[in-house]
């Protein structure tokens, strides 16, 4: 949104100055270069905003396997699970004007999106599932995201060998229409192995970006001081931060 405003402003400034500039040959060359730049930038943005393929329900995998953490043993996760996640809260915090603390009921009452997508894990397997939940953009708009926010960090309940799992995306993926906070898989509440009670779906990126056991959504200006500073649990261990597919 802000980006579109920026490009529009840039376009307006350019048009205002262009008659005079185009009179010279150097000016014409500059115009052509700027036009190429603009086309390239536009292609990049529209590619990032394109939808991931969605599938008919008939293609849903009979079993959606779990990977990474599949049954967190740390903190109070097991007690929460035993109570049917009745007290689970999702916080929206950081660089927002109105921090939120939402119950699962609050989340189920927001406008919902359902999508049948393919999950691709770098370990070499894929599965198709139907995910339901509110778009992340709805929560960010409700919380009043501040201008300074550049990334959204996802905090998770599971801890792997002393490090909490976490992930992050930029604003293009944060506001992508298929970026949802899923509470259901194939019409049922998420199984524990797939991230109960809430997990991210970041459909334009690889499996490790899709944070499970989601406890908080944090708007930040920099990823430097989080974990080991590379934007995610696996990124801190050498994986690419941008894992586009
Ligand atoms: N909190 C948390 N989220 C996570 C992981 C994890 O270990 N912990 N593993 C990631 C990886 S590598 C993949 S492929 C997917 C697996 O999702 P699934 O268990 O539903 O198949 O979750 C991702 N999100
Ligand atoms: Mo993965």
Describe this structure in words.
With 245 residues, this protein is of the alpha+beta class. It has one domain (2-237): Sulfite Oxidase, Chain A, domain 2. 29% of the residues lie in helices and 26% in strands. It has a five-stranded mixed β-sheet with strand order 2-1-11-5-6. It has a four-stranded antiparallel β-sheet with strand order 3-4-8-9, with no helix packed on it. α1 (2-22) runs antiparallel to α2 (25-49). It is globular, with a radius of gyration of 21 Å. The chain starts with a helix and ends in a 25-residue tail after the last strand. Residues 1-22 have low confidence and may be disordered.
Summary, kept brief:
Helices cover 29% and strands 26% of the residues. The strands form three sheets. A five-stranded mixed sheet has the order 2-1-11-5-6. A four-stranded antiparallel sheet has the order 3-4-8-9, with no helix packed on it. A two-stranded antiparallel sheet has the order 7-10. With 245 residues, it is of the alpha+beta class.
């Amino acid at each position: 949104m802000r980006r579109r405003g920026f490009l529009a402003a840039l376009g307006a400034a350019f048009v205002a100055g262009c008659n005079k500039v185009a009179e010279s040959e150097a000016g014409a060359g500059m115009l052509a270069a700027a036009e190429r730049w603009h086309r390239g930038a536009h292609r990049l943005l529209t590619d990032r905003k394109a939808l991931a393929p969605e599938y008919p329900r008939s293609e849903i995998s009979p079993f959606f396997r779990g990977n990474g953490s599949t049954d967190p043993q740390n903190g109070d996760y097991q007690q929460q699970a035993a109570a049917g996640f009745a007290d689970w809260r999702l916080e929206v915090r950081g660089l927002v004007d109105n921090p939120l603390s939402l119950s699962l009921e609050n989340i189920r009452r927001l406008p919902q999106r359902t999508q049948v997508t393919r999950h691709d894990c770098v370990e070499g397997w894929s599965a198709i599932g139907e995910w339901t939940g509110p778009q992340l953009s709805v929560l960010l708009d409700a919380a009043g995201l501040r201008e300074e926010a550049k990334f959204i960090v996802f905090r998770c309940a599971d801890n792997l060998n002393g490090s909490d799992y976490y992930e992050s995306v930029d604003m293009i993926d944060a506001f992508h229409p298929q970026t949802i906070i899923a509470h259901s898989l194939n019409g049922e509440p998420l199984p524990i192995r797939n991230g109960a009670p809430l997990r991210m779906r970041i459909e334009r990126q690889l499996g490790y970006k899709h944070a499970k056991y989601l406890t908080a959504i944090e708007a930040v200006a920099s990823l430097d001081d989080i974990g080991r500073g590379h934007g995610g649990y696996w990124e801190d261990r050498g994986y690419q931060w941008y894992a586009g597919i």
